[in-house]
Recover the amino acids of this structure.
């Protein structure tokens, strides 16, 4: 049998110690009859047990149960670089400078290793690990061991979204990015037009979050976030002489990332209604921002990828889809939208410039993020 006693959330260390002191021992919990008996659910969860109605909804995606009906045919983690300080920078010029510096140093280390290769037993011990010059990782060490040299390529630079509402220049390269997952199929070039719905990863301590971007996403855009794209791109292998080659001979062919089975699922729910895959994409974004959905399925969303319900009427489907579109425009084009109106609530009418310097900031309440108190 499993017994549990909850002393409360958001307590300081001293508050926790004071509670333990008041109880004296486990016997103190017995005297208060404060034990809660836990029966693990079918998932083996003891605490924060899931709502089983969640399993009635269609999955966003599933790479393990490949025969299950899912909305998306493919999805991906963001790019894991293992060397963020080198491959990211807010300045284009500094990014170029940093990458040239680390590539030149890498090539110099390869040459140094090549000249002494016969006497070296372990290349990991041999390489210079000065973090101001380079950041080594498994794949880069393997390349050095094979005596592979690299050249800086300016075409590898693109804009990426590093954190929500934080764009950075990025050196997108399979060698200097440790793992790119499926991102080359989602954003194969710097000019590729696409949108991805990024949801926070499974098992993270933070509450569920969702964010849309039209740029290459970093792995920690949201904590170990999974990204579900509007489109997927495949390299066009057709030759110019091929009868069926594309008329404009594009290098990449675009296809919908939402499956035909996913479309059919919603068409069945709303018969005789015109629904497109794009409508579904923005409907998902609207649902994932719905406070009622996020609150009811908070425990599910911490432990599994989202599943998407069908709302009762097509009218409601349309409203959620429209809300999702509007949120997408705000989140992607945040640099050009109208600024949110701010009212300064001050105890003094004579506000000098120094009063605006922010040294400390917090929300008014943990449950109310509409007000910020600073200094």
């Amino acid at each position: 049998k499993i017994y549990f006693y909850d002393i409360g959330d958001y307590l300081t260390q001293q508050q926790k110690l004071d509670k333990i002191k008041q109880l004296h021992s486990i016997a103190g919990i017995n005297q208060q009859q404060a034990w809660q008996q836990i029966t693990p659910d079918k998932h083996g969860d003891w605490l924060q047990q899931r709502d089983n109605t969640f399993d009635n909804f269609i999955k966003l995606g599933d790479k393990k149960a490949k025969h299950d009906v899912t909305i998306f045919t493919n999805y991906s983690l963001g790019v894991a670089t293992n060397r963020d300080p080198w491959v990211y920078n807010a300045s284009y010029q500094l990014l170029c400078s940093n990458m040239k510096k680390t590539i030149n140093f890498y090539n110099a280390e390869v040459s140094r290793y090549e000249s002494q290769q016969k006497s070296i037993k372990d290349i990991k011990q041999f390489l210079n690990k000065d973090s101001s010059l380079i950041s080594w990782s498994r794949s880069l060490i393997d390349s050095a061991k094979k005596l592979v040299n690299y050249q800086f390529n300016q075409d590898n630079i693109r804009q990426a979204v590093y954190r929500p509402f934080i764009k950075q220049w990025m050196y997108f390269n399979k060698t200097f990015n440790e793992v790119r997952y499926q991102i080359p199929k989602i954003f194969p070039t710097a000019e590729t037009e696409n949108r991805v719905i990024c949801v926070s990863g499974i098992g993270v301590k933070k509450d569920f979050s969702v964010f849309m971007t039209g740029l290459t996403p970093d792995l920690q855009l949201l904590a170990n976030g999974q990204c579900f794209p509007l489109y997927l791109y495949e390299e066009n292998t057709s030759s110019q002489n091929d009868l069926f080659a594309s008329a404009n001979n594009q290098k990449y062919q675009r296809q919908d990332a939402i499956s035909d089975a996913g479309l059919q699922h919603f068409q069945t729910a709303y018969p005789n209604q015109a629904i497109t895959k794009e409508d579904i994409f923005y409907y998902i974004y609207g649902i994932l921002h719905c406070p009622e959905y996020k609150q009811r399925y908070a425990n599910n969303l911490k432990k599994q990828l989202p599943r998407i319900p069908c709302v009762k009427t097509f009218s409601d489907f349309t409203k959620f889809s429209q809300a999702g579109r509007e949120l997408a425009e705000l989140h992607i084009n945040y640099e050009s939208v109208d600024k949110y109106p701010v009212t300064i609530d001050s105890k003094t009418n004579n506000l000098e410039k120094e009063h605006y310097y922010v040294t400390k900031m917090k929300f008014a309440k943990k449950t109310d993020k509409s007000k910020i108190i600073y200094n």
Notes: The two ends are 50 Å apart (CA to CA). The longest helix spans residues 92-116.
